[in-house]
From TrEMBL:
<dbReference type="InterPro" id="IPR050957">
    <property type="entry name" value="BMP_lipoprotein"/>
</dbReference>
<keyword id="KW-0472">Membrane</keyword>
<dbReference type="InterPro" id="IPR028082">
    <property type="entry name" value="Peripla_BP_I"/>
</dbReference>
<protein>
    <submittedName>
        <fullName>BMP family ABC transporter substrate-binding protein</fullName>
    </submittedName>
</protein>
<keyword id="KW-0732">Signal</keyword>
<keyword id="KW-0449">Lipoprotein</keyword>
<feature type="domain" description="ABC transporter substrate-binding protein PnrA-like">
    <location>
        <begin position="41"/>
        <end position="339"/>
    </location>
</feature>
<comment type="similarity">
    <text>Belongs to the BMP lipoprotein family.</text>
</comment>
<dbReference type="Pfam" id="PF02608">
    <property type="entry name" value="Bmp"/>
</dbReference>
<keyword id="KW-1003">Cell membrane</keyword>
<feature type="signal peptide">
    <location>
        <begin position="1"/>
        <end position="20"/>
    </location>
</feature>
<dbReference type="InterPro" id="IPR003760">
    <property type="entry name" value="PnrA-like"/>
</dbReference>
Amino acid sequence: MRAFRAVMAGVVAVALTAVAGCGGGVETVSPPPGPLRVGLVYDIGGRGDKSYNDAAAAGLDEAKRTLTRMRVREVAAAPGEPAARKVERVRALAEAGYDPIIAVGYSYAPALASIGPKFPRTRFAIVDEPTVSGPNITNLLFASEQGSFLMGAVAAMKSRTGDVGFVGGNRSPLVRKFEVGYVQGVKHVNPRARIRIAYLTGPHDLSGFERPDKARQAARRMYRAGADVVYQVAGASGAGVFRAAKKAGAWAIGVDYDQAKSADPDVRDVILTSMIKRIDVAVYDYLAGVADHTVTSGRVVYDLKLGGVDYTLTGGHITDIQPRLEQLKQEIIHGRVKVYPG
């Protein structure tokens, strides 16, 4: 077991103890003298997406503020780019001497699998599944299904129609974990609830995370059909779901970040809550481990017990059901309620 440092990032201080999975070992490579040269590659949307990538950026910013001196290079993926471009991006950073290199998003898994073995003295980390194995690769993972179970419980408790929805950016295994957890949470509270599911693109098409117009249309159809709460897991496309909720006078649920604070001000009042993934904490913890030479390879899973996933109270819309949510959280943590990832 490896204890990760506690960090204040964003609006909540979360003390974490992360456990590295099987095959992990302490990285013994010493960084070069001088500032730590950190490379960070964002998924589509990059810094400023008000969701997934911004959570990683917050962890990086906190590390720059509180840890050792750093020189940072940030690069973002482009919509529709071929997989080879991600490989080239990671390779270029490694060749330029950046160490560590953090990849934000599962779409970089093939790139790290290809480049990691060719640069054995460079440390790599990737946020989210699938797992990439290697003695110099750390996998920063989240029990998204657990946090999404709570979102499903919120939707079921707040819905007046018993009809709720889910909009996913693409039909990938990662996003499916959110859907599966959400459905379990809805059915746990209201077994008779109707759940409408829409994905914006197929499993290998990342453009679904950059199509707010398409997300708006999908959510609008759900609201018109009777849904009154829709959970979006769609990156920058989630803005379209919020617009549809505003137009329908209904609720939406955010993801990854406290979107009632980060979304456009005119739609914040329709965001019931957000399922936060503490990507900021994971990125900070990883950089702290690099800085003090204790970083590990292998899997590090941030779950409800570790505070790696949670819900937000901004706006005060769910304070009335918070005691029930806390009860469910404890039941999950202690194994009395089982949440399955798929």
